[in-house]
Amino acid sequence: MNRPFVSGFRFSLLAFAVTLCFAALLSRLYYLHIVAHDRLAGVAEQERKRVEVVNARRGDIVDRRGNLLATTSAVVTVGVDPQALEPEDFTKIDELADILNISPAFIREKFSKLHREVKTSNGLEQRSIRWHKLAEEIEEPVYEEVRALGIRAVYGNAKYDRQYPSQELAAHLLGFVNNEGQPSFGVEQHLNFYLAGHEGWRELERDGRKRELAHFRRREVESTAGLNVEMSIDSAIQHAVEVELERIAEEYQPKSATVIVGEPSTGYILALANYPTFDPNKFSEYGFENQRNRAVVDRFEPGSTFKIVPAAAALNEGLVKPFDEFDCSLASVEHRGRNVRLPSDHHPLGVLSVEQIVVKSSNRGAALLGIALGEKKLHQYAYDFGFGEITGFDLGLEATGTLHPVEKWDGLTISRMPMGHSVSATPLQVHAAMGSIANGGVLMEPKTVRRVFDENGETVVNFSPRAKRRVVSQETAFEVSRMLEKVVEPGGTALKAYIPDYGVAGKTGTTQKIINGRYSRRHHVASFSGFFPVNDPRIVITVVIDDPQIDGVGYGGRIAGPIFKNIAKDCIRHLGIPPMEEEAPLVALGPTEPQTSVDNNPSARISTVLQ
């Protein structure tokens, strides 16, 4: 350019503009490299480097025979970065759709959508899309097929998914793990320390397309898988119980129902189920009413199942013998200088022996036994049998029930508690109390976990049976067992629970529910708790049905007795329990004929006891 053809003003203006651009560029460079260097370097470091958490695989839960109850499998969420796609990747859409079992049109739409509109303070802005989800919870073998296609822009994020292969089986014992990985009640929560394992981590770098640069991986700590838990339950027995509960729900439409099966000698629970129930795989579809473990948190008046307490206590204290007689036609008796009104029976029973009081489930007879014991001893034995305190259930979260201290008793408690009123209990407390009779008078803590073990099957933590206390002597427990055996024979209240040759012993309960502050004649809780064989108890079963819909009264012998029998037969078949030998005596229990002497007749002594 010849200067004569360019005016001085235009040349100066152009030179000034060029100088200004360079000055702005140098200023920006100075700001980026000097003024904002530390902050921007930190931002770049954050974008380039990541510390990723490596989740640990949660341990398995199995039953006593090793059958899988809960497990964890790795699943992958597959997606695409449409900005990183190559032209040839579009030719593989049909293969990818076939592997993921989704529509090719859906994949083509995600491959083609590169931007989305985002609302900002400056209005709508177009931003690049770096991730479209294509499919989730894809198993690892399927993901390997996806990777084999060679589409680098399609990749997955792995996570662990908790699964319960048997759906509802033992749901109230297992609990569940929610979508955030947090355990909720049951074994999942109570033994989370062992099951969860330990997370690992790794420090890595990514390129501009957010792909990992493996050769820049600096530090990595591997995760440690969780330990496994072996429960005491038997899946076959648990399944039999839940099938029976389904039948109960369909036939009687109760408000709720609970069945517990256990070993009296160890306290181990072989099955525990409630109605209504839920599927832990789909826990979010069920309400709290379905998820509540009613066996350990629901309380009810135990009714006649509680009568083992005054009967065993009076025998243990030497106040009575099995064939001592009481006049159960009395409407009231004198006690501590006042007249105590006795509860009524369903029909007049007259004079009954202690054994007949238990067999015929006499309310008045039980009251007379309680009065003979006195307030303090009756309360103490009730507590010793486990009422008014937690059972020691190893999964926690259990109710204590209600056992008022003696100083808070009213004038009727001494005659009403022996028949199972004025006291409340959970089904598990009733089960444990009956188990103590079957176990020779020793109360055991109910347990559902046997051990924690590692991947090689080696035991890490062992949960052995634990006895809480001796409640009554072995001789007393055997005497009560003999009485309870006659409850399921002709003349007893639970003939429908009878199993020939297996020596079933048990006690029925039929409790009027309290509705609007009064005992209802239409709403009942039917229950039965018993064990077998009586000469060497292997199994104790407790059945509680809340408000069965039936014409007439839902008696425990009528409703709960047959349920006990059906489950007991399943246990006999599955465990191979042999019938009792006829010639094998239970135990030497003393005289076999009623005592009629004045010294051994409580009717002659009771006037002194009740003063």
From TrEMBL:
<dbReference type="GO" id="GO:0004180">
    <property type="term" value="F:carboxypeptidase activity"/>
</dbReference>
<dbReference type="InterPro" id="IPR050515">
    <property type="entry name" value="Beta-lactam/transpept"/>
</dbReference>
<feature type="compositionally biased region" description="Polar residues">
    <location>
        <begin position="593"/>
        <end position="611"/>
    </location>
</feature>
<feature type="region of interest" description="Disordered">
    <location>
        <begin position="590"/>
        <end position="611"/>
    </location>
</feature>
<keyword id="KW-0472">Membrane</keyword>
<dbReference type="InterPro" id="IPR001460">
    <property type="entry name" value="PCN-bd_Tpept"/>
</dbReference>
<keyword id="KW-0378">Hydrolase</keyword>
<dbReference type="InterPro" id="IPR005311">
    <property type="entry name" value="PBP_dimer"/>
</dbReference>
<feature type="domain" description="Penicillin-binding protein dimerisation">
    <location>
        <begin position="54"/>
        <end position="207"/>
    </location>
</feature>
<dbReference type="GO" id="GO:0071555">
    <property type="term" value="P:cell wall organization"/>
</dbReference>
<dbReference type="GO" id="GO:0005886">
    <property type="term" value="C:plasma membrane"/>
</dbReference>
<keyword id="KW-0645">Protease</keyword>
<dbReference type="InterPro" id="IPR012338">
    <property type="entry name" value="Beta-lactam/transpept-like"/>
</dbReference>
<dbReference type="Pfam" id="PF03717">
    <property type="entry name" value="PBP_dimer"/>
</dbReference>
<dbReference type="Pfam" id="PF00905">
    <property type="entry name" value="Transpeptidase"/>
</dbReference>
<dbReference type="InterPro" id="IPR036138">
    <property type="entry name" value="PBP_dimer_sf"/>
</dbReference>
<keyword id="KW-0121">Carboxypeptidase</keyword>
<feature type="domain" description="Penicillin-binding protein transpeptidase">
    <location>
        <begin position="258"/>
        <end position="568"/>
    </location>
</feature>
<dbReference type="GO" id="GO:0008658">
    <property type="term" value="F:penicillin binding"/>
</dbReference>
<protein>
    <submittedName>
        <fullName>Penicillin-binding protein 2</fullName>
    </submittedName>
</protein>
